[in-house]
Specification:
Helix content is about 5%, strand content about 35%. By secondary structure, it is mainly β. InterPro entries: PQQ_b-propeller_rpt (IPR018391), PQQ_rpt_dom (IPR002372), Quinoprotein_ADH-like_sf (IPR011047), Quinoprotein_DH_CS (IPR001479).
Length: about 375
């Protein structure tokens, strides 16, 4: 049965007319964000498209009580009629800017011995989600970075009234701390445990390969008034490594059915490139210091590295030309993590804290833009 998203809970069950607008105070939903700006996936067999919606505004949660539907939501929608078949809100009443637009990866795998159409999503909130993409049933919701602390878990008890909702930690709730007060040590930071850098899936290993941010934040919400054409933020954010650590990144292999990390390679900075998994059992990714790396898909063991002139935020790609295979990567530091270096910003709070969080990056790489291409040996 197709479900009208105006009549659904966070798990897509009918509850009544205008349920989503009632989760906003007054007309705040009109200026509350929740837009989609990321990636779309499509299943031709089910004739459904999948995507995520972004964060609510303002970033000050005190000003927008309620679940703020349908921000932070995974959508399954019929592309011909526009009707949503199911929705799942990952972060109701987002207090941390955990934008929900990251890619939706579609695979077919066995769950409980049955072939099942799956959707796997690595959210900025630090949880890796696996759902039955035909029905919207939530199968897995586990942390893919162990330092995630804004929520202790997602309630997976189907008999519970809070089934599918995160169990928020009061100590890391900016709303509970209050306006003009700073909540420190929230993990992950607003930059997310994974941002727009895409993960990859290998049909050979049945694992996902995920570039991640291993980073936390301080968060100070303040009152802000909506004015058309003016930034509507309402929070000051600072980014820091997790307590007792200096690194801010990792590249890991994730079992989406079990909801577990199979291996993880620490990196000094966030891994901001896309991952490339190959049929030859090799996975490629780039680092913010500028390295292109090749690792063993099964174990994570590093096989090769090459230093490019600038930090890698582009996606590693492969192609064939005249019978020979090539691997290429565009390096040129930028994006959220590289904004301080790229734009010459110096205030640590700029870039939602990214300038301060990645201040040391200038010691490891420089600005630039170059396409580096490698030819694989001919057989």
């Amino acid at each position: 049965m197709l479900v009208d998203p105006e009549k659904t809970t966070h798990l897509g069950k009918p509850v009544g007319k205008d349920s989503s607008t009632k989760t906003w105070e007054g007309d705040q939903w009109k200026t509350g964000g929740g837009c989609t700006w990321g990636w779309f996936s499509y299943d031709p067999k089910l004739d459904l498209m999948y995507y995520g919606s972004g964060n609510p505004s303002t970033w000050n949660p005190k000003q927008r009580p309620g679940d703020n539907k349908w921000s932070m939501t995974i959508w399954a929608r019929n592309p011909d009629t526009g009707v949503a078949k199911w929705v799942y809100q990952m972060t109701p009443h987002d207090e941390w800017d955990y934008d929900g637009i990251n890619e939706m990866i579609l695979t077919d795998q066995k769950v409980g011995g049955k072939d099942t159409p799956l959707l796997t999503h690595f959210d900025r909130n630090g949880f890796g989600y696996t759902l039955n993409r035909a029905t919207g049933e939530l199968l897995v919701a586990e942390k893919f970075d162990p330092v995630v602390n804004w929520a202790s878990k997602v309630d997976m008890d189907k008999g519970s009234k809070t089934y599918g909702r995160p169990v928020v930690a009061e100590a890391y709730s900016p709303e509970r701390t209050g306006e003009d007060e700073t909540t420190a040590g929230i993990c992950p930071g607003a930059i997310g445990a994974k941002n727009q850098q895409p993960a990859a899936f290998s049909p050979e290993t049945r694992l996902f390969y995920v570039p991640t941010n291993h980073i936390c934040m301080s968060y100070e919400p303040f009152h802000v008034t909506y004015t058309t054409g003016v930034p509507f933020v309402g929070a000051t954010v600072g980014l820091q490594p997790p307590p007792g650590e200096t690194r801010t990144g990792a590249f890991l292999a994730w079992d989406g059915v079990a909801g577990k990390i199979r291996w993880s390679n620490p990196e000094p900075f966030s891994v901001w490139s896309g991952a490339l998994a190959t049929a030859g059992g090799v996975v490629f990714y780039g680092t913010l210091e500028g390295y292109l790396k090749a690792v063993d898909a099964a174990t994570g063991r590093e096989l090769y590295r090459f230093k490019t002139p600038s930090g890698v935020v582009g996606n590693v790609m492969t192609y064939r030309h005249r019978g020979r295979q090539y691997v290429a990567v565009l390096s040129g530091v930028g994006g959220w993590a590289g904004i301080g270096l790229a734009a010459g910003l110096t205030d640590p709070a700029d870039g939602a804290g990214a300038v301060g969080g990645y201040a040391a990056l200038s010691d490891y790489t420089a600005l630039g833009g170059q396409l580096t291409v490698f030819a694989l040996p001919e057989r």
